[in-house]
């Protein structure tokens, strides 16, 4: 596995699994999304790691790409909450996610089906298997329970400092005959829904990434850009993290300037096309030396 450090990946995978189980305990009616996000991110930073991306919490019809800036998001009874986070150490990355329904069981079948879909894919993943075969497994397992997989959300290959690299792992049969190979790291993340099998992007995700370091003359934007270049040059970062260094007014002003100038990109929230409920479960898999390691499962 030439590009992958298996020992470090196993270390990060164990840490990710423990943190996932601890974060799950915070998901209660009346808790804020910010409290959970800050718990996850602080634990990562305190252990000398770095978030592979800002921890996200998406509720009900939201699928991905939302983290809190200064919004008040309080969990309510019946909410279907998706928690997605990753851990990085010098560019080596893990990724995982889980879904919880708070104090009701209206969507228990959806969540149970999603877990089975993920397990079926994880069982199928191996060197030589095509992406189309993986998509078929995902789609058929979901359909067995009367649900759709989200077609325009997929798993992904992971490389150093690159969360979405190389292969895209589909959740339906897409005809891609590319093969999974030994030496790959893959994030396997089927999204299931009781609605349409497509998502759309809306504004307000609060997750950004540095696109270029082109100089700017505006004094405030220049200070914020330099801070981003120094602290968050390679991985996505949270708009909220900038509040540690700058006040809210300067953050919003500078980011608007930098987005218009092409220096930074802000990800939109991904939501159901028709308001359908969405669930997500995810693990990171490493193929090395003819063996398969589900490094974020918490099971050695």
Notable traits:
Arc Repressor Mutant, subunit A; 4-stranded antiparallel beta sheet; 30% helix; alpha+beta; Creatine Amidinohydrolase; globular; 5-stranded antiparallel beta sheet; single chain; 300 residues
Give a brief rundown of this model.
The chain has 300 residues and is α+β, with helices and mostly antiparallel strands. It has 6 helices and 16 strands.
Give the topology, please:
Elements: H1 6-24, H2 33-46, E1 50-59, E2 62-64, E3 80-89, E4 92-93, E5 96-101, H3 108-124, H4 131-144, E6 148-149, E7 155-159, E8 162-169, E9 185-188, E10 191-193, E11 199-210, H5 219-231, E12 237-238, H6 248-260, E13 264-272, E14 278-280, E15 283-288, E16 291-294
Antiparallel strand pairs: 1-3, 2-13, 3-4, 3-5, 6-10, 7-8, 7-9, 9-15, 10-14, 11-12, 11-13, 15-16
Helix pairs in contact: 3-4, 5-6
What does this structure look like?
By secondary structure, this protein is an alpha+beta fold. The chain has 2 domains: 6-196 and 275-294, Alpha-Beta Complex (Creatine Amidinohydrolase), CATH 3.90.230; 202-269, Winged helix-like DNA-binding domain superfamily/Winged helix DNA-binding domain (Arc Repressor Mutant, subunit A), CATH 1.10.10. 30% of the residues lie in helices and 30% in strands. Strands 8-7-9-15-16 form a 5-stranded antiparallel beta sheet. A hairpin with a 2-residue loop joins strand 15 (283-288) and strand 16. Helix 5 (219-231) crosses helix 6. The longest helix has 19 residues, at 6-24. The mean pLDDT is 97.
